[in-house]
Amino acid sequence: MQGLSAAEHDRLREYVTLFLHAKQVSGAHGLTVTDEMHVLIAAQACILILNLDLDYYEGWVEIIVYPGEFVRDYEYVDEDGVAHHARESVSGESWLGGPVILSWEDVEAAGIGAGYNVVIHEFAHKLDMLNGDANGFPPLHPDMSRQEWSEVFSRAYADFCTRVDADEAVPVDSYAAENPAEFFAVMTEAFFETPLAVQTHYSAVYNQLTLFYRQDPVQRWSES
What is the pLDDT of residues 109-167, one digit of tens each? Predict the structure, then answer.
């Protein structure tokens, strides 16, 4: 939020108020969610839609906050068609049409470096899910090109995966190589937390994100 203008601060405050009126934030495993925690989560969620609209977060109401990482149970089918059941510890999760689940320990870790922000990450998934399962292709504005988005992100994702496979240094969390949906979410984290890194290494992706979010964090930071 560094470099927000007075008008942007006012709009963010308004969005946070309306967001908290519309959403139910509850603690799990005995966690008490304080007013400050409500505001911190809402502010980070609303920074994504600062120049969009609160309607982007319609269709679901619940945010669940755990004290720390929580265990996710899921099933998947391998390349041979065999179904497996797995359990893993995660810091956040977004469900299609359902809640956003967060680890408070990880929420507090935002802004300490490396572009990490679990709230921005999970709410980026929510935007991605506006047209179905998360796949790294959120619904674009009418003045944006679907072909250009697809080409830019496909090219950048392939390059990123090649770098990760080669154990090269990468400018954002290597988890972005997991799949295109995670690439979009991690790039969104970095776009707001360490925007210069995205602009420097993946300028075409940065340009697409400025068009989608209708924000330019590098310019905002340079003018602050």
Answer: 887 667 789 999 999 999 999 999 999 999 999 999 999 999 999 999 999 999 999 99
d(CA 151, CA 52): 24
Q: How many CB atoms lie within 10 A of CB 17?
A: 13
Q: What is the DSSP letter of 21?
A: H
Alpha carbon of residue 181 to chain centroid: 10
CATH of 6-222, picked from 3.40.390.10, 3.40.50.1010, 2.120.10.30, 3.30.430.20, is: 3.40.390.10
- The CB-based long-range contact list for 84-93 (8 Å cut-off, 24+ gap) reads 91/118, 92/118, 92/119, 92/121, 92/122, 93/122
Residues 194 and 95: their CA atoms lie apart, in Å, by 26
CA distance 224 to 215: 15
Distance between CA 28 and CA 17 in Å, rounded? 23
